[in-house]
Design a protein that fits this description.
By secondary structure, this protein is an alpha/beta fold. It has three domains: 144 residues, 3-Layer(aba) Sandwich (Rossmann fold), CATH 3.40.50.2300; 231 residues, TIM Barrel, CATH 3.20.20.70; 171 residues, no CATH class. Helices cover 33% and strands 19% of the residues. The strands form five sheets. It has an eight-stranded mixed β-sheet. It has a six-stranded parallel β-sheet with strand order 6-9-10-11-12-13. The protein has a five-stranded parallel β-sheet with strand order 1-2-3-4-5, covered by helices on one side.
Length: 593
């Protein structure tokens, strides 16, 4: 029996091949602080690969007395689904929840009965008490349901290091999440971080370099810095120059308006920062100041241009729906980014009115309306409706030259971990384990004639892992009425971040349908089907694309460099039967990793 289990469920990426980016750093920090056994941190590989029912079974097998969970807006509903089942299994089980979702004003979450105690803010100060079953019972006997956040003045290295203590181990090719500062000097009203951690607490460069050396010796190849603003430290150049010798790949979020010279941008590149995230947000200086972020859009763009000149790829963030903003400013930003050659990777979001933010506190007087559940999307900002914002987002995408939110890419390969192959004519099936990203391959002579067993099989899979993505791939020898696609698309999905975000941006949510057909299939049918879902035809050679949005499923071996040049205008329409080629295409060509 593992007395305590700490669980942090991942975000579902847009493709099964893309890493989740989920590293259980927060659970490991808490376990190290509370001096729990290493086995208390639920393993990263299981967190990122197990489906809903498999997670439940594994936790039951471990038979814990206490479970702690880290809640983010993207894993909240799935985690609650798991916790409710665990409470039904053992009503004496103690459950503690922390993470960014836990704030005193998140009333819909605080009403959750499966959770015994909520802990807001940084959890290390409470770890020894709330992760001890006996001490937790003492706290609960007082009737306390929420422990409010405390203002901490200590730097992150005050607490035991989970990497050094063995709670986390770098994996080959994986990312190591590292925290060198807490607290933020910005006052962004749409961000909860400043209110929860208002005092910047920065670890000195010399200590950070010592930790990086340790991680490098442990086998780390990639560092992801979780600092709110990586370049806000005064000893930045000292840190960057010390990092240069390790030849690591690094990623962080920076304020590019703080980058005034090529000395800094060049040092970032030499330290391994080939990519950096930059928050432009809007082209309105007035709006940036009114929401507490400050700065000037042109200064941000100048700094981003310096980064580009040094060889850094900038991931630029834009936010639609900030109070007082006009959607036209996002279109203006898109044009400026194109003009300056900074438009390769732009993320355009509708504002999320997050719990714990000043924005949520003042939403009514600011003319802001929003959904009360993740992703907390703004539905009205002043006189602008959500439809107005989405139209501006579409216009910005046209200017940038690519879709701001492309549909998820289904798995069409012949094999994939956990793939289930179903033949409805004889009910043959290869039973698969419960996996986080499922693939159901339906091979049939006539999909329409067999629609009832097909629907039954999909329902069976959805009931097993309701909060997990499922790629349903139909390969039918006969054409079928496209009414079947409408029927499948109307199948219900549970309310959660993935579904709600998909509804807003008009892409598939947890259920992702695709069709694989013979190349001799009627072209009009293929074209009409491709306007509804991912549609491909099988080919044994690199032939011309069928036209419209119809893709190719290529069998055999190929030179991916030559293929990427051949299909440069429609890379997303090329799929591979060989899973190794599909993986490389996703990560190296489409850059989805």
């Amino acid at each position: 029996m593992h007395t305590v289990q700490l669980v942090q469920l991942p975000l579902h990426p847009a493709t099964a091949w893309e890493p989740t980016g989920n590293s259980p750093l927060a659970p490991a920090m808490l376990a190290a602080t509370a001096a729990l056994p290493v086995e208390s941190v639920f393993p990263e590989d299981l967190l990122n690969t197990l489906g809903d029912s498999a997670l439940l079974d594994e936790l039951k097998r471990r038979d814990p007395v206490l479970i702690g969970v880290t809640l983010y807006l993207w894993n909240r509903e799935r985690t609650l689904h798991l916790l409710r089942q665990l409470k039904e299994w053992n009503e004496e089980l103690l459950i503690v929840a922390g993470g960014p979702e836990v704030t005193p004003d998140n009333h819909s979450l605080l009403a959750e009965n499966s959770i015994d105690l909520f802990v807001a803010g940084e959890g290390e100060s409470f770890a020894k008490d709330v992760l001890s079953p006996e001490r937790l019972k003492t706290i609960l006997r007082t009737g306390v349901k929420l422990l409010g956040p405390v203002v901490d003045t200590r730097t992150p290295d005050h607490w035991p290091d989970p990497w050094e203590k063995g709670y986390l181990t770098p994996t080959e090719g994986g990312s190591v999440h590292i925290e060198t500062q807490r607290g933020c000097q910005c006052h962004c009203s749409y961000c909860a971080y400043r209110r929860a951690s208002p005092i910047p607490r920065i670890i000195a460069a010399e200590k950070v370099l010592k930790k990086i050396r340790m991680l490098h010796e442990m086998g780390a190849e990639e560092l992801v810095f979780l600092d709110p603003t990586f370049n806000s430290r005064r000893d930045l150049l000292t840190l960057l120059r010390g990092m240069a010798s390790y030849k690591l790949d690094c990623f962080a979020e920076v304020r590019s308006d703080l980058i005034h010279s090529s000395e800094v941008s060049d040092a970032l590149v030499k330290a391994g920062f080939n990519s950096l995230e930059v928050g432009l947000q809007t082209m309105s200086r007035e709006v940036l100041h009114s929401v507490g972020r400050g700065g000037d859009p042109n200064s941000i763009l100048r700094g981003a241009s310096l980064l580009k000149k040094s060889g850094v790829t900038t991931v630029i963030d834009l936010i639609l729906g900030l109070p007082g903003d006009n959607p036209a400013n996002i279109e203006l930003a898109a044009g400026e980014l194109v003009a300056r050659g900074l438009h390769d990777q732009v993320q355009t979001f509708c504002l999320s009115v997050l719990p714990g933010t000043e924005l949520r506190l003042n939403a009514e007087k600011l003319g802001i309306q929003y959904e009360d559940r993740p992703p907390y999307t703004v539905t009205r900002s002043g006189s602008h409706t959500l439809n107005d914002l989405l139209l501006a987002r579409e216009n910005a995408s046209d200017i940038l030259g690519y879709d701001a939110d492309p549909p998820p890419r289904p798995v069409l390969s012949d094999s994939f971990p956990g793939m289930e192959v179903f033949t409805p004519e004889n009910r043959e099936t290869i039973i698969s384990p419960s996996v986080r990203h499922g693939v159901l391959r339906i091979n049939t002579v006539d999909a329409w004639a067999n629609r009832e067993p097909i629907l039954g099989k999909i329902k069976e899979r959805r009931d097993k892992d309701p909060y997990c993505p499922l790629d349903v791939v139909i390969q039918s020898k006969k054409l079928f009425p496209l009414d079947l696609i409408d029927i499948l698309k109307q199948l219900s999905e549970p309310e959660c971040y993935t579904r709600e975000k998909a509804k807003i941006y008009g892409v598939p949510g947890l259920l992702r349908i695709a069709v694989v057909m013979d190349p001799a299939t009627d072209q009009n049918w293929l074209k009409e089907c491709s306007e509804m879902i991912t549609t491909v035809v099988i080919s044994d050679s690199a032939v011309a694309l069928p036209g419209g949005q119809v893709g190719l499923l290529l069998h055999g071996s190929y030179d991916l460099a030559r293929l990427s040049a051949l299909y440069s205008e429609a890379l997303h329409l090329v799929f591979f039967a060989e899973k190794e080629l599909e993986l490389l295409w996703n990560l190296d060509v489409l850059e989805l990793g």
